[in-house]
Design goal:
The chain is of the alpha+beta class. 14% of the residues lie in helices and 30% in strands. The chain has one domain (20-137, 152-228): Lipocalin, CATH 2.40.128.280. It has helices at 20-25, 59-65, 77-84, 151-161, and strands at 94-103, 109-111, 117-122, 125-131, 164-174, 177-185, 196-203, 206-212, 221-228.
Length: 230
Amino acid sequence: MVAGTEAGHLAAAAPTVIDLTRVIKQGSAVDGRGGGRLRRTSPYAAPEATGGKTMSKSYLAAALTAGVLLSVATGAAAAEAAGAKGGKAASIEGVWKVSNVVITGANPITVTSPQPSLYIFDRGYFALVQVTGDKPRTATPAFKDPAKPTDAEKLARYEEYAPFGAQAGTYVLKGGKLTRTATVAKAQVAMSGTPYDVDATLSANTLVLTGHAAAGQPARETKITLTRVK
């Protein structure tokens, strides 16, 4: 669903990604308190399932059906420059937005102008909300009888709510893997306590999160590019 977002790319001058393992060993790029594995509970931590017609409209839903969804990082030219000045290494902590989405597989999808989104990482905790479709949503009118909505009203409300993802919980970044565990999420299935891992690469103000299809599922890769907002 994926979770989604407006396009925007803060391009840094020819960033050179460095070895994450080396950076982590230096103790400068592990996010999370104490560098330990935080296990509380993540659009992308545990899949948020959508379905029906809306699935084809939502890159997040497409990713989730493959057991992918939705994040990260460390080490880049910016980190090296900061280190040379005695500053801190690059960190995923801060506020981000989705600027590009590419999903490979049987039904490939590329979204270059995502709908609004926000990803926030701070001291081992994360929160994200996003419109996961590739087009603006249509607001639905209030039910004529809130106690007895018609089938048509229910379907319209579903179409509005389906391409939207939201999760918050804890995360651990280690060895180029971002592991998120959702404490609260739009979809109940995401709150099972099962951690969700993605490959993470940070280069200056760009964070790339790459998820892969679950074992036994058709080959599929979901690459979400985030641009730092703050």
